[in-house]
Amino acid sequence: MERKSSHSELVDSIVEIYCRKDEVTHRTGYGVIIRTGDKPHVLTASHVLEEDEEGEVWDAVHPEVAQDFGFHSAARMLWKGGGRGLRRSEENDLVLMPLAESAGIAIDVVTIADLLTPAFIACIAYVPKDDYLVKRLDAMAGLIEQEDSRGYRLSCEGREGMSGAPVFVRDRDSGDYRLLGIYTGTPRTTPLTRANIEKHAFATKIGEFLRGA
């Protein structure tokens, strides 16, 4: 597995997490493929897959979901299992899921960023091509406007349903993209309302969590 960070490879690094409820498959959030030690993992927000839930990681839209809209999906399932037993931090709202060695693109991580550094929350959008859905990068860009011990607050607005999405910054020297944090929604001290989800974009720091992986 190579570490790459071109625009197209960012798309390949972003995955979708699905759970089944009442026999219906639904996306609970996003994640990003990283390398910890010598193995690839998916990093996402822990509330995307709770300990008592069963979930799946796909590299694109789930075939059942695509079919509901009259399309096909060539997505691959990268992981399937339960939330119990995974490395997680409820305090920081992070969880790691182990992947096979051949799964996806691993993105480099940066653990420090200055205030007013441009950053963006990345997720996936789809465009139809014939009867298939094709992945495209979707993002909300802003500046790092605040920092505390848990993470960074961005100047852009968040979006409902984007939990676990990676937050990237761009290296000024090389131009490569680096993973800064995970979008976990509003800070935990902020009431979880639609208005606050749209108003606040909070990127949880991941360095300390990954050092213990």
Topology:
Elements: H1 7-13, E1 14-21, E2 24-36, E3 39-44, E4 54-58, H2 63-68, E5 77-82, E6 87-89, E7 94-98, E8 118-129, E9 132-147, E10 151-154, E11 166-170, E12 177-185, H3 194-199, E13 201-205, H4 207-211
Antiparallel strand pairs: 1-2, 1-4, 2-3, 3-7, 4-5, 6-7, 8-9, 8-11, 9-10, 10-13, 11-12, 12-13
Describe this structure in words.
The protein folds into 2 domains: 7-98, Trypsin-like serine proteases (Thrombin, subunit H), CATH 2.40.10.10; 118-211, Thrombin, subunit H. The two termini are 19 Å apart. The protein is mainly beta and 213 residues long. The mean pLDDT is 87. The chain has helices at residues 7-13, 63-68, 194-199, 207-211, and strands at residues 14-21, 24-36, 39-44, 54-58, 77-82, 87-89, 94-98, 118-129, 132-147, 151-154, 166-170, 177-185, 201-205. The relative contact order is 0.20. A hairpin with a 3-residue loop joins strand 9 (132-147) and strand 10 (151-154). The strands form 2 sheets. The chain has a 7-stranded antiparallel beta sheet with strand order 5-4-1-2-3-7-6. Strands 8-9-10-13-12-11 form a 6-stranded antiparallel beta barrel. 11% of the residues lie in helices and 46% in strands.
